[in-house]
Write a structure and sequence with these properties.
Blueprint: H1 35-50, H2 61-70, H3 75-92, H4 94-100, H5 106-112, E1 115-120, E2 126-130, H6 137-143, H7 146-172, E3 179-184, H8 190-195, H9 197-210, E4 215-221, H10 227-234, H11 240-244, E5 246-248, H12 254-260, H13 280-283
Parallel strand pairs: 2-3, 3-4, 4-5
Antiparallel strand pairs: 1-2
Length: 291
């Protein structure tokens, strides 16, 4: 006889399209809501509709739940957050960026500040890599600007939500809502970091406030002895939930990464076996880009 206690019934059904028989939603997701959480979702949705803030094409229940989780299911705070995000979208010109943004300098920027999506981890999350240690500020800002870097960031967030996550969800047979991030600090200098701290601060703010609850795993690797000074600057920009998801590793990170990421999906530079012909940072390889 099994000793596993029975799971309480969810107040919401599983989302459509689940084909993975072993899928168990995390708390606060569709298929694993308490009665109070389900009522909060219904109230949140109705108030947005009644007050003219509801945008059907990007406010499905899973998205509304992201904002609710970010505000611990406090409906007024979640509403303030999502209304603020919609106002920001208009001011930042997100719709225009999605339609028209062309990051022509991508290949050059990749030489001086690689940032890229590459395949998936063992739970189906898109892997996002940022190599802050390769940063060459002078060269970077001779070919691009902070403004264009932020526009690229937003373009990639939108693509993450509308293309990468749906493709990963289909491939895995269950909803995938978050990323697995690797930030490589090998060779990072404090002086270079300070020069891009404005970008990093604004990027952190956009991620937390406009695209909440999209971080699943976050590994900071090759953290140097001086990283405590950098972390002291970054940490106040992040909320408590985000900080708890961050795993800070030194140079002995390989085994920890391989617990989460299949070797064939992890670039050779990080101890995996993947070696994309065009370079992993430029391949955009993953379920969202079948070849």
């Amino acid at each position: 006889m099994s000793s596993t206690p029975p799971q309480p019934a969810s107040a919401s059904p599983l989302p459509e399209g689940v084909t993975d028989p072993n899928y168990v939603p995390l708390p606060g997701r569709l298929g694993n809501l308490t009665v109070i959480q389900q009522h909060a979702l219904e109230k949140f949705k109705k108030e947005l509709q009644d007050e003219g803030h509801f945008v059907p094409e990007r406010m499905d229940d899973a998205t509304l739940l992201r904002f609710l989780r970010a505000r611990k299911f406090d409906v007024p705070l979640a509403k303030e957050m999502i209304v603020g995000a919609e106002k920001w979208r208009k001011e930042f010109g997100v719709d225009d960026i999605v339609k028209n943004f062309d990051f022509k300098e991508k290949a050059e920027v990749d030489k001086y500040y690689p940032q890229f999506y590459h395949k998936i981890d063992k739970e189906g999350r898109p892997i996002y890599v940022e190599r802050l240690g390769k940063l060459d500020v002078k060269a970077l800002y001779s070919i691009t600007t902070v403004e264009r870097q932020l526009q690229r960031l937003v373009y990639e967030y939108e693509k993450f939500l509308t293309e990468r996550l749906p493709a990963c969800s289909t491939a895995c047979g269950h909803p995938v809502e978050t990323s697995c991030t690797i930030m490589d600090l090998k060779g990072v200098s404090l002086s270079s970091f300070y020069k891009v701290s404005t970008y990093v601060s604004e990027a952190s703010s956009i991620g937390q406030n406009r695209y909440p609850e999209t971080m699943g795993k976050f590994y900071i690797i090759n953290a140097p002895w001086a990283f405590s000074a950098v972390w002291a600057i970054i940490k106040p920009w992040l909320d408590e939930v985000t900080v708890k998801k961050i795993n800070i590793l030194g140079s002995g990170y390989k085994d920890e990464l391989l617990k989460q990421i299949p070797a064939e999906n992890l670039p050779q530079d990080f101890g995996g076996t993947c070696n994309c012909p065009e370079g992993c940072s430029m391949s955009d390889s993953g379920p969202w880009n079948p070849k």
